[in-house]
């Protein structure tokens, strides 16, 4: 049987020995949370993952993308990137990032708040003009307030970590309804990831099953991707890479749908080659 090809669509790299953290960093990962490019490559190789999307972290580096760019360069095509940038970044700087393998920027409203992006209209217009991605992380009902800004820009939108819903609020909560609306309209890609961030239950996070089912139904496997969120910062319980892949197999039992989520859709979205394995 042909092995399953895989792309991990949300990981981070931290290499403070070579790229010191910003003095005012929101959080400074240390110890088992460190994820150097060498460690990342070893984890991906061990689990048979061909490619990964390196998401610039607010923790450690903030708007300093040097570590991210170094890993992209050393990866020789294995990776794509999402950068953290200021809202007033010029289009020429975004174009230079794209040339280096950065295909989008993060909008982390879950951490910084929706108001932080009130003046981000020009940024989103630049992203749309360059065919880059707005990689959006929200929590609870923040997507309701953020959606008009996203819709006006026409930018490509990826939603992190299942939209980070509150499992006690139900799938009819305004923020999750808005996420499903975007799925029905084909106006976003959602990452099936980060269950441990919001679940009130331990692995396998059964309280999120209705949310995963709703996302799969409204987005379909052609607008869903998978991600580990390695190296697992500030986790409420132990989490490992292998069990996360096993969880996806449980959430998406159809092997053809899993292939689309793990390979076909991310290759399309991030421009990874679909031929010979990289790893």
Automatic annotation (TrEMBL):
Any one Pfam family match given in the protein's UniProt record, by short name: Amidohydro_2
Domain of life of the native organism: Bacteria
Organism this protein belongs to: Pseudonocardia charpentierae
Residues covered by the Amidohydrolase-related domain: 7-272
Protein's UniProt name: Amidohydrolase family protein
Upper taxonomic lineage: Bacteria, Bacillati, Actinomycetota, Actinomycetes, Pseudonocardiales
Gene3D superfamilies: Metal-dependent hydrolases (3.20.20.140)
């Amino acid at each position: 049987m042909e092995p399953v090809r895989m792309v991990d669509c949300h990981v981070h790299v931290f290499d403070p020995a070579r790229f010191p953290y910003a003095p005012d960093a929101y959080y400074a990962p240390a110890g088992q949370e460190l994820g150097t490019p060498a460690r990342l490559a070893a984890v991906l190789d061990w689990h048979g993952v061909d490619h990964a999307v390196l998401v610039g972290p607010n923790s450690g580096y903030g708007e300093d993308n040097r570590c991210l760019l170094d890993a992209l360069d050393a990866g020789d095509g294995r990776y794509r990137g999402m950068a953290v940038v200021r809202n007033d970044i010029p289009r020429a700087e975004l174009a230079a990032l794209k040339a280096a393998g950065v295909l989008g920027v993060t909008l982390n409203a879950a951490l910084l708040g929706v108001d932080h992006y009130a003046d981000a209209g020009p940024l989103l217009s630049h992203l749309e003009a360059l065919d880059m991605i707005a990689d959006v992380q929200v929590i609870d009902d923040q997507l309701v307030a953020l959606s008009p800004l996203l819709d006006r820009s026409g930018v490509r939108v990826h939603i992190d970590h299942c939209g980070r819903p509150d499992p006690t609020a139900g799938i009819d909560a305004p923020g999750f309804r808005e996420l499903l609306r975007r799925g029905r309209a084909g106006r976003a890609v959602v990452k099936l990831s980060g269950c441990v961030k919001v679940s009130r239950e331990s692995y396998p996070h059964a309280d999120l099953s209705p949310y995963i089912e709703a996302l799969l139904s409204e987005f379909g496997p052609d607008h869903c991707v998978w991600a580990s969120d390695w190296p697992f910062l500030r986790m409420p319980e132990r989490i490992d890479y292998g069990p996360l892949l096993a969880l996806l197999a449980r959430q998406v039992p159809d092997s053809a749908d899993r292939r689309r989520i793990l390979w076909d859709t991310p290759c399309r979205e991030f421009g990874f080659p679909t031929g010979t394995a990289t790893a």
